[in-house]
């Protein structure tokens, strides 16, 4: 049993929709206007707005009728019910047995409809007072009445059927909300959950659903059992919570309500080793797991991120269509989402993405700093230079840096008001630690992490600058202009070569069989490090799966000339006492990589001298070791 109230201002189509709805549901139809006392009708005919006192008896009559109709099996009622207190007065039956269907439209459109009406006591001039009185409900079914009645009825029936959600999203932070809206916009039915802690997080899920009720019908929950029960079996749940212990706590809280073959997708920035552990733990309980990297920030999550899922292939097969549907699209229209590999592969690749991002951000910041304080260019000119560069680079990070440089606050550049102390969330540091575990160089990324750390020591730096009288020396921009761009392109290439070499080493070490070309492809859009170079890498790694990027012929041809530009800019900046940790790291890596003879023979001799660690000899097979009594 249930009574369905179709509500909204006069002229929105309550009666028409209500009558069509009764045909679908085989229920009687009633119009609330037919129950107005005669005094109310006379007032409305005279164009006099009704007051709350006028509505009191009318609402009491309707409340009694609603109870009566419900006992007889239900009904459909067309009623304005503009204020929340009116709706509460009509609540004469249990909440779950009274269904509100709110029709809404614009003032202009409804006024046009009312002007076309004939022989109706409601005057169009009363519409203004109705809109002023209207308090839209934060519950029920919301329908845009701009569509035809024939189009509206299927929408209502679909929402009334309340089919189980295809996917559940746990955690409505910035990224969680954006992903939920992205899925809903792709016609995926989503259940959303957020904890409800008094004074900390109250009614987050409820308010989120209410905010977007005119566009999407989210099933919202703050009870985990009901949240899980709202999902179709086998269940698919995306976790968008803080990395670390929180993920384990959430998983433990959900386990009592899960069944075999349910799937948990961790969409946060979890450590790849933790993802591998969680996959094994859940597999023992018959639960599937995907550790999924998601890049693109708030806007990417809403409009289309780059997605990197890792875990069992059968888990991806089940949810891949949704992930690919909400992902960004590459230049060929293919989703920037692909199965990465088993275990923690997805989160490892996301971690390395962030590491490359750290270095790219550092490069842009260093060159800006050099141009601003040594070459003495103003911010608008620097923005113009970056804009010119980006016609070739097509870099997202350059693009946003241009906007940052031009942003003003009360006629002053905002960048000058931002404290030069950078933060980090951990993925850059994780990349450095992972490189040490794998025994691979990670110069540019590590230098970027360390640069952020030293930037945080603001007070000490100010004190030291005063003691040492450190101030950038002036250099001539015209003498270094061409080299700047070439140096920037060179360090970007070196950084990507370093990053992809680490991916290759991890793939071999953990037997992930990573596809570097496919990883490059899903990084061509939706993510922070998308660029023209990334598009070139798709082809390079498809043709040269084992080669280092720096050994590719086209790269070699460019770097032979650009290395001198890199040297010029680095040395000029250092001579001007401008720190360039990222650029210096890129240059040192490149010089080390391209040097047939390094200084490591002295290091091996030293190690053997004080620790008898042995060494290899020139002209003898690798792996044959010697020791000298020094």
Automatic annotation (TrEMBL):
Domain of life: Bacteria
GO MF: ATP binding; gluconokinase activity; NADP binding; phosphogluconate dehydrogenase (decarboxylating) activity
Keywords associated with the record: ATP-binding, Gluconate utilization, Kinase, NADP, Nucleotide-binding, Oxidoreductase, Pentose shunt, Transferase
The UniProt record lists the keyword Kinase: yes
EC number: 1.1.1.44
Catalysed transformations (reactions): 6-phospho-D-gluconate + NADP(+) = D-ribulose 5-phosphate + CO2 + NADPH; D-gluconate + ATP = 6-phospho-D-gluconate + ADP + H(+)
Pathway: Carbohydrate degradation; pentose phosphate pathway; D-ribulose 5-phosphate from D-glucose 6-phosphate (oxidative stage): step 3/3; Carbohydrate acid metabolism
Keyword Repeat in annotation: no
Membrane-crossing residue ranges in chain numbering: none
Cited SUPFAM superfamilies: 6-phosphogluconate dehydrogenase C-terminal domain-like, NAD(P)-binding Rossmann-fold domains, P-loop containing nucleoside triphosphate hydrolases
An annotated GO BP: D-gluconate metabolic process
SMART domains per UniProt: 6PGD
Domain 6-phosphogluconate dehydrogenase C-terminal: 346-630
Enzymatic class: oxidoreductase
Family as reported in the entry's similarity comment: Belongs to the gluconokinase GntK/GntV family.
Subunit structure: Homodimer.
Role this protein plays: Catalyzes the oxidative decarboxylation of 6-phosphogluconate to ribulose 5-phosphate and CO(2), with concomitant reduction of NADP to NADPH.
Annotated protein name in UniProt: 6-phosphogluconate dehydrogenase, decarboxylating
Origin species: Salegentibacter flavus
Lineage: Bacteria, Pseudomonadati, Bacteroidota, Flavobacteriia, Flavobacteriales
């Amino acid at each position: 049993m249930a009574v369905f109230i179709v509500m909204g201002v006069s002229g929105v189509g309550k009666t028409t929709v209500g009558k069509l709805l009764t045909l679908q549901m085989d229920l009687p139809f009633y119009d609330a206007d037919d129950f107005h006392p005669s005094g109310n009708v006379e007032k409305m005919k005279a164009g006099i707005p009704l007051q709350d006192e006028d509505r009191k008896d009318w609402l009491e009559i309707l409340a009694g009728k609603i109870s009566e109709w419900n006992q007889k099996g239900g009904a459909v009622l067309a009623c304005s019910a503009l204020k929340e207190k009116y709706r509460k007065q009509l609540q004469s039956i249990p909440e779950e047995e009274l269904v509100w269907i709110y029709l809404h439209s614009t003032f202009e459109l409804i006024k046009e409809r009312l002007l076309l009406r004939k022989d109706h006591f409601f005057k169009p001039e009363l519409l203004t007072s109705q809109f002023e009185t209207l308090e839209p409900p934060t519950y029920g079914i919301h329908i845009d009445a701009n569509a035809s009645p024939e189009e509206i009825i299927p929408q209502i029936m679909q929402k009334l059927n309340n089919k189980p959600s295809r996917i559940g999203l746990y955690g409505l932070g910035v990224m969680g909300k954006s992903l939920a809206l992205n899925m809903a916009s792709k016609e995926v039915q989503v259940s959303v959950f957020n904890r409800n802690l008094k004074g900390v997080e109250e009614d987050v899920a409820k308010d989120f659903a209410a905010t977007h009720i005119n566009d999407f019908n989210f099933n919202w929950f703050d009870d985990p059992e009901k949240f899980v029960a709202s999902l179709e079996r086998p269940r698919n749940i995306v976790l968008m919570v803080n990395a670390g212990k929180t993920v384990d706590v959430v998983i433990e809280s959900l386990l009592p309500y899960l069944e075999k073959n349910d799937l948990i997708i961790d969409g946060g920035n979890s450590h790849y080793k933790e993802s591998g552990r969680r996959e094994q733990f859940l597999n023992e309980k018959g639960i599937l797991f995907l550790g999924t990297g998601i890049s693109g920030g708030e806007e990417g999550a809403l409009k289309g991120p780059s997605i990197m899922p890792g875990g069992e292939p059968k888990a991806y097969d089940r949810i891949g269509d949704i992930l690919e549907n909400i992902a960004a699209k590459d230049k060929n229209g293919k989703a920037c989402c692909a199965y990465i590999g088993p275990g923690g592969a997805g989160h490892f690749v996301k971690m390395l993405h962030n590491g490359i991002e750290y270095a790219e951000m550092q490069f842009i910041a260093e060159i800006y700093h050099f141009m601003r304080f040594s070459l003495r260019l103003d911010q608008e000119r620097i923005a113009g230079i970056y804009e010119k560069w980006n016609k070739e680079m097509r870099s997202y990070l350059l693009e946003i840096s241009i906007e940052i440089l031009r942003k003003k606050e009360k006629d002053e550049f905002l960048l000058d008001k931002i404290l030069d102390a950078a933060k980090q969330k951990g993925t850059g540091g994780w990349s450095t630690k992972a490189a040490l575990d794998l025994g691979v160089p990670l110069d540019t990324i590590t230098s970027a992490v360390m640069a952020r750390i030293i930037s945080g020591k603001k007070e000490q730096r100010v004190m030291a600058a005063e003691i040492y009288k450190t101030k950038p020396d002036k250099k001539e921009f015209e003498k270094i202009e061409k080299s700047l761009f070439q140096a920037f392109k060179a360090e970007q290439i070196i950084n990507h070569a370093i990053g992809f070499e680490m991916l290759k080493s991890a793939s071999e070490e953990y037997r992930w069989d990573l596809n570097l070309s496919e990883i490059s492809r899903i990084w061509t859009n939706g993510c922070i490090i998308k660029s023209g170079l990334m598009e070139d890498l798709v082809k390079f790694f498809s043709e040269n799966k084992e080669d280092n990027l720096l050994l590719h012929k086209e790269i070699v041809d460019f770097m032979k000339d650009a290395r001198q530009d890199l040297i010029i800019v680095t040395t000029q900046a250092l001579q001007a006492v401008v720190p360039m940790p990222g650029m210096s790291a890129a240059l040192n890596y490149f010089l080390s990589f391209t040097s047939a003879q390094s200084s490591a023979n002295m290091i091996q001799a030293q190690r053997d001298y004080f620790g008898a660690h042995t060494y290899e000899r020139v002209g003898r097979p690798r792996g044959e070791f010697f020791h000298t009594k020094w």
